[in-house]
Amino acid sequence: MRTSVDSARNLQLNFPVFSSLLISIGTAALAVQVVGSNWPKPHYTLLITGLCRFQIVQVMKEKPYPVAKVEQLDWLEEFPNTCKTREELGELSEQFYKYAVQLVEMLDMSVPAVAKLRRLLDSLPREALPDILTSIIRTSNKEKLQVTVFHSGMPRCFVTSYSDLDSEILVFVSDYLADNLVVLAIHVFLRERCYTFPQILDAVSLEERFKMTIPLLVRQIEGLKLLQKTRKHKQDDDKRIIAIRPIRRITHIPGTLEDEDEDEDNDDIVMLEKKIRTSSMPDQAHKVCVKEIKRLKKMPQSMPEYALTRNYLELMVELPWNKSTTDRLDIRAARILLDNDHYAMEKLKKRVLEYLAVRQLKNNLKGPILCFVGPPGVGKTSVGRSVAKTLGREFHRIALGGVCDQSDIRGHRRTYVGSMPGRIINGLKTVGVNNPVFLLDEVDKLGKSLQGDPAAALLEVRFRRFPVCNHTGRVWVLDPEQNHNFTDHYLNVAFDLSQVLFIATANTTATIPPALLDRMEIIQVPGYTQEEKIEIAHRHLIPKQLEQHGLTPQQIQIPQVTTLDIITRYTREAGVRSLDRKLGAICRAVAVKVAEGQHREARLDRPDVAEGQGYREHILEDTKPESTSDTTDLALPPEMPILIDFHALKDILGPPMYEMEVGGIKDKVLAAHRAGLKRVIIPQRNEKDLEEIPGNVRQDLSFVTATCLDEVLNAAFDGGFTVSTTPGLLNSKL
Ligand SMILES: Nc1ncnc2c1ncn2[C@@H]1O[C@H](COP(=O)(O)OP(=O)(O)OP(=O)(O)O)[C@@H](O)[C@H]1O
Q1: Torsion of CA 123, 125, 129, 135, to 10 degrees
Q2: What is the distance between the alpha carbons of residues 489 and 523, in angstroms, rounded to a whole number?
Q3: How buried is 436 (Cβ within 10 angstroms: 0-12 exposed, 13-18 middle, 19+ buried)?
């Protein structure tokens, strides 16, 4: 079959042609494989080898399948030898090459076929490419196409088979390259492939083909540029961007956009080099950077590694190797600041002040890592922040809750795709100084997974080989005596963490990994009493919420009794986080009222509105001040300050979630009565609560009040509890 195609200009195809009869030009192909089934719907995939292009001369029959007499088209005349045409085609082919390369550059490199094509492009000698392209575009019948026949009958073409091409001779490789650029451009990535395919096939002469293809490429490039621009805006700052760079070209058309891009890139590299030279990084890091920038300069910008190396270098120059803030060590000022920011927490504040005092006297960070342990919302994070403020240091919180991958803390090795530095190095980059206060939040929630133990990542394990024996050394990342050589996997050079002040927080010590627990000083932060919560609310939370909502004490008044109601009926917590949230909700509701009031006042002040048709009298008669319905616009501004009483509380927060009765004695006694019990033992201190129990219930029950467990046991067992529970003398284990 192939022989007859090669040797004859006219041939009769007596197999179905894959072109609709509406289109007179098509590609003859040999089906090499048929895969598919008729169930549940007919769906076949044919693997076919393209042979040549043809034009239908005469349709012989249409049914049961079309048979036509065709003329082979791929007999392009020799490349015309006149100077003018050569120049013209040369320019066209260069243009085609330039745009095709640009398009492939912009495509998604994660598609293996595109990545392979890019590698191929990089491996070809640049000087030869325009010539190669000019010669090979004639052989566009060599591509292997996979045609999927849908039951709708519409054929769809895309490139297949990329294997074994690297080893082919250059001409064949370049055939492949040009074919695939055309096919990639036309069939795979151009949206309009179904419509343009026949047009491209129609273009027989080389010049026509170039002219047909170039605008399509340009259109696609513009589309992709627009898409990338939109995506760029959306990208999260934390996400690393692998830049798509144009590869170096041999042809430069001065003044083009591509030239500007390339200039910018070169400028960036020069800037980067300058930053490396002037940065104050240690020798070891400097050496690595110099080596990497040398590699970068030699790398084609199209290589994925180019972007990775560049990102690495940008991080290296941004890191605060030697940049630090000056500590403010004034213990009196620290005390005032801690007291101003936090009510109660005496034990915690005392220990923090001791810690700071020692630092002031010894001027170093040696000592245990403080770990604040307590229920949520009791101010652990907030105290950490105050410590930073006191010292005049930057503060950075590293949330460890749910972290179960070592590399989250120590970074990924750069060999991984999408590798990133760990949270410690990232934190240093964010704060821009090497002596921040790092709050390791929720160390008790560190997880473990197949990706390693993050707690162990805080314990840097080093294996040192000695000539005689192997010795394993463990280095405590958080210990200033040991952590001057902290090595993040991504950075792969040591960073000195000895100036960082680490503080940890946890809700419980039970789940803190023992190795970590061992090395920290635990300071318990207990929950607050109701009275403390009221004070915290009025001294700290309410003023903070007012400020956040743009309100003043002249506009809102929350009496202490209301705060108590919120604490007892709307929250049930050891800390004050929910209380803070509820206060926020109240402020939001009041802000709406105040804003509406201002709007109404403005309307009343307008003479045209106020005078017209007795407007003021009208609203005085008709409106209800508390209304929040559609008529609010007509209401009078609310009286200031807006008082938050229990009714307002119910309006804003809904009905109380918990009932005050925070004691349960009444409910429990009633339940015991219902269950037919006769005797109830209650703590003596709750005796007063019995007054709330209805008389008839009280009559049916006998009550025993107990002050200690002995009394409870004696009352609980008929005849009393005979075994003495009074402890004898125990031997001290101390
Ligand atoms: N004693 C206090 N004085 C003033 N404000 C406080 C006090 N305790 C807590 N707060 C405030 O309560 C809020 C919650 O505190 P914070 O976030 O520090 O709690 P936490 O103990 O770190 O909670 P978690 O364990 O959930 O992280 C903050 O706005 C904080 O300022």
Answers
A1: -90
A2: 32
A3: buried
> Residue 452 pairs with which residues in a beta bridge?
449
48-74 residue pLDDT tens: 766 777 778 888 887 777 788 888 775
Cα distance between residue 443 and residue 349, in whole Å: 21
Q: Is 209 part of any domain?
A: yes
158, 161, 162, 167: CA torsion to nearest 10: -150
Q: Which atom of ligand 1 is nearest to the CA of 345?
A: 1
What backbone phi and psi angles, to 5 degrees, belong to 369? -85, 130
Rounded Cα distance between 421 and 436, Å, is 18
Domain boundary among 26, 41, 72: 72
pTM for this model (two decimals): 0.55
Three-state secondary structure call for residue 660: coil
Separation of CA 504 and ligand 1 centre (Å): 14
**Neighbouring residues of 547: CB distance < 8 A, sequence distance ≥ 6:** none
Judge whether 378 is annotated as a binding position. Answer: yes
Residue with the smallest CA separation from ligand 1 atom 30 is 379
Task: Give Cβ neighbours of residue 248 (< 8 Å, ≥ 6 apart).
Answer: 126, 262, 300, 301
Q: Are 300 and 349 in the same domain?
A: no
pLDDT in tens, 415-457: 776 788 989 999 999 999 999 999 999 888 876 655 556 666 6
CB atoms under 10 Å from CB of 610, counted, come to 13
Integer Cα distance of 310 and 322 in angstroms: 22
Distance between Cα 368 and ligand 1 center (Å)? 23
pLDDT tens by residue, 374-427: 999 999 999 999 999 988 999 999 988 777 677 788 888 887 767 889 899 999
Q: Is 680 annotated as a binding residue?
A: no
Determine if residue 422 is labeled as part of a ligand binding site: no
Sequential DSSP letters for 348-382: HHHHHHHHHHHHHHH-S--SPEEEEE-STTSSHHH
Ligand 1 is surrounded, with C-beta below 6 A, by 342-345, 374, 376-382, 441, 505, 507, 536, 540, 575-577, 580
Whole domain around residue 507: which residue ranges? 331-524
- Residue 659 Cα to ligand 1 middle (Å): 25
Instruction: For residues 295 and 388, state if they share a domain.
Output: no
Answer yes or no: do 68 and 90 share one domain: no
The ipTM is 0.97
One domain for residues 494 and 544: no
Structure confidence by residue, pLDDT tens digits, 19-44: 444 567 777 777 777 777 666 666 67
448 CA → ligand 1 middle, Å: 28
Contact in structure between 21 and 112 (CB atoms under 8 Å): no
Index of the ligand 1 atom closest to the CA of residue 383: 18
Within-domain flag for 323: no
Ligand 1 mean position to 483 CA, how many Å? 30
Which of these, 455, 472, 436, lies nearest to 518 by C-alpha position? 455
Whether 482 and 341 share a structural domain: yes
Domain tally for the chain?
Answer: 6
Alpha-carbon distance values, 386 to 276, 326, 358, 369, 682 (Å): 35, 16, 17, 16, 44
